[in-house]
């Protein structure tokens, strides 16, 4: 009894102390520690789906907790089969990872087995480049066009006999632009004759464009990276996958410490259920489009240039900001992306819920409409 009171007091004091630091507001809810802690800010900096995980995924994940004492081998194989079927491929075309970041890193390590360079647009999603660079690979950056789109002819022209990897993020993060499937397909066919191509389709489900997975039926030098972090709303569950020809999947698998063992039993269960929750996926897509339209209108009204987006984020210019806007957002507990390109002061904002964006737009109006 004494111990229980002492523990309760300790929990209370610890959470109050943490709250005082500003990191976590309060973990003390009755006697329970809860996860996640209540949101301290409006998160518009990581392109997460604000509505997820889907109802079916939540139920499946909760149910999977009890089975977490067992390795999820069978369920992971079922998931690979199910993903394969979605693209008229087999489980042997699918490799699982703890998020698609693991896949990008794996492909970088594979490509770097032979010294050389990799070609990528800039700016793009580049966190994982360090994996390639640490292993001696030189990154050749090809600027986007003035419209912030991939410059595919320029990228193709940069490929040399030393090129080991060509990366295309479609739609592109942070700009939200997209290359149509037919143009990209021609590019991939040409580029993959010279080097391995890595196509990142993290945000494709927000668009009307089809996946280029059908190319994998014959193309042995293409890897497509996919994730459950975006439209499936499972960023915290850390689950993603690669699609590639089975020969290539085998070579990539050999670089994993334990084949397909990244995602947890809970994540695998959530992913299996999420694939079936078509209503959730459709609603997420529709809500995102509506709220993105609202945000774009507000940027336009405030006179800030932005790039039409096919994703759950917008790329906009803060050139006319006198330096107050990002500070004002931070003061209002709204977390946003940093300035990505100094020239033009281009920054990225993720699309949250209508309420999230109302908070963003309110700060926007106050700053720019004086
Ligand atoms: C284009 C792109 N690819 C991959 C990722 C990695 O996502 P995850 O590791 O959560 O699957 C992100 C994350 O924001 C991204 O924007």
UniProtKB/TrEMBL annotation:
<keyword id="KW-0808">Transferase</keyword>
<dbReference type="InterPro" id="IPR004839">
    <property type="entry name" value="Aminotransferase_I/II_large"/>
</dbReference>
<comment type="similarity">
    <text>Belongs to the class-II pyridoxal-phosphate-dependent aminotransferase family. Histidinol-phosphate aminotransferase subfamily.</text>
</comment>
<dbReference type="InterPro" id="IPR050106">
    <property type="entry name" value="HistidinolP_aminotransfase"/>
</dbReference>
<feature type="domain" description="Aminotransferase class I/classII large">
    <location>
        <begin position="42"/>
        <end position="361"/>
    </location>
</feature>
<dbReference type="InterPro" id="IPR015424">
    <property type="entry name" value="PyrdxlP-dep_Trfase"/>
</dbReference>
<dbReference type="GO" id="GO:0030170">
    <property type="term" value="F:pyridoxal phosphate binding"/>
</dbReference>
<protein>
    <submittedName>
        <fullName>Histidinol-phosphate aminotransferase family protein</fullName>
    </submittedName>
</protein>
<dbReference type="GO" id="GO:0008483">
    <property type="term" value="F:transaminase activity"/>
</dbReference>
<dbReference type="Pfam" id="PF00155">
    <property type="entry name" value="Aminotran_1_2"/>
</dbReference>
<dbReference type="InterPro" id="IPR015421">
    <property type="entry name" value="PyrdxlP-dep_Trfase_major"/>
</dbReference>
<keyword id="KW-0663">Pyridoxal phosphate</keyword>
<keyword id="KW-0032">Aminotransferase</keyword>
<dbReference type="InterPro" id="IPR015422">
    <property type="entry name" value="PyrdxlP-dep_Trfase_small"/>
</dbReference>
């Amino acid at each position: 009894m004494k111990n229980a009171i002492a523990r309760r007091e300790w929990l209370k004091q610890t959470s109050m102390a943490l709250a005082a630091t500003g990191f976590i507001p309060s973990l003390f809810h009755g006697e329970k520690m809860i996860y996640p802690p209540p949101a301290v800010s409006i998160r518009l900096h990581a392109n997460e789906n604000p509505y997820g995980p889907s109802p079916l995924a939540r139920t499946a994940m909760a149910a999977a907790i009890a089975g977490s004492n067992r390795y999820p081998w069978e369920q992971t194989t079922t998931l690979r089969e199910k993903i394969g079927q979605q693209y008229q491929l087999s489980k042997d075309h699918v490799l699982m990872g703890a998020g698609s970041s693991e896949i990008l890193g794996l492909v970088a390590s594979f490509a770097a087995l032979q010294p050389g360079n990799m070609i990528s647009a800039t700016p793009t999603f580049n966190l994982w480049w360090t994996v390639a660079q640490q292993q001696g690979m030189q990154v050749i950056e090809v600027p986007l066009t003035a419209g912030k789109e991939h410059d595919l002819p320029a990228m193709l022209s940069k490929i040399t006999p030393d090129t080991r990897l060509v990366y295309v993020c479609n739609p592109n993060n942070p700009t939200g632009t997209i290359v149509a499937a037919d143009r990209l397909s021609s590019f991939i066919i040409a580029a993959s004759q010279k080097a391995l191509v890595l196509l990142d389709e993290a945000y494709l489900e927000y668009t009307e464009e089809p996946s280029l997975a059908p190319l994998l039926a014959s193309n042995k030098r293409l890897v497509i990276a996919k994730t459950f972090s975006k439209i499936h709303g499972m960023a915290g569950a850390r689950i993603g996958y690669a699609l590639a020809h089975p020969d290539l999947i085998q070579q990539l698998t050999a670089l994993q410490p334990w084949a397909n063992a990244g995602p947890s039993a809970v994540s695998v269960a959530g992913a299996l259920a999420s694939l079936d929750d078509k209503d959730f996926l459709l609603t997420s897509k529709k809500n995102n489009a509506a709220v993105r339209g609202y945000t774009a209108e507000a940027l336009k009204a405030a006179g800030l240039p932005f790039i039409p987006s096919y994703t759950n984020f917008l790329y906009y210019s803060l050139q006319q900001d006198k330096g107050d806007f990002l500070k004002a957002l931070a003061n209002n507990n709204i977390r946003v992306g940093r300035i990505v390109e100094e020239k033009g002061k281009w920054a990225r904002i993720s699309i949250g819920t209508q309420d999230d964006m109302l908070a963003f737009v309110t700060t926007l109006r106050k700053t720019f409409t004086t």
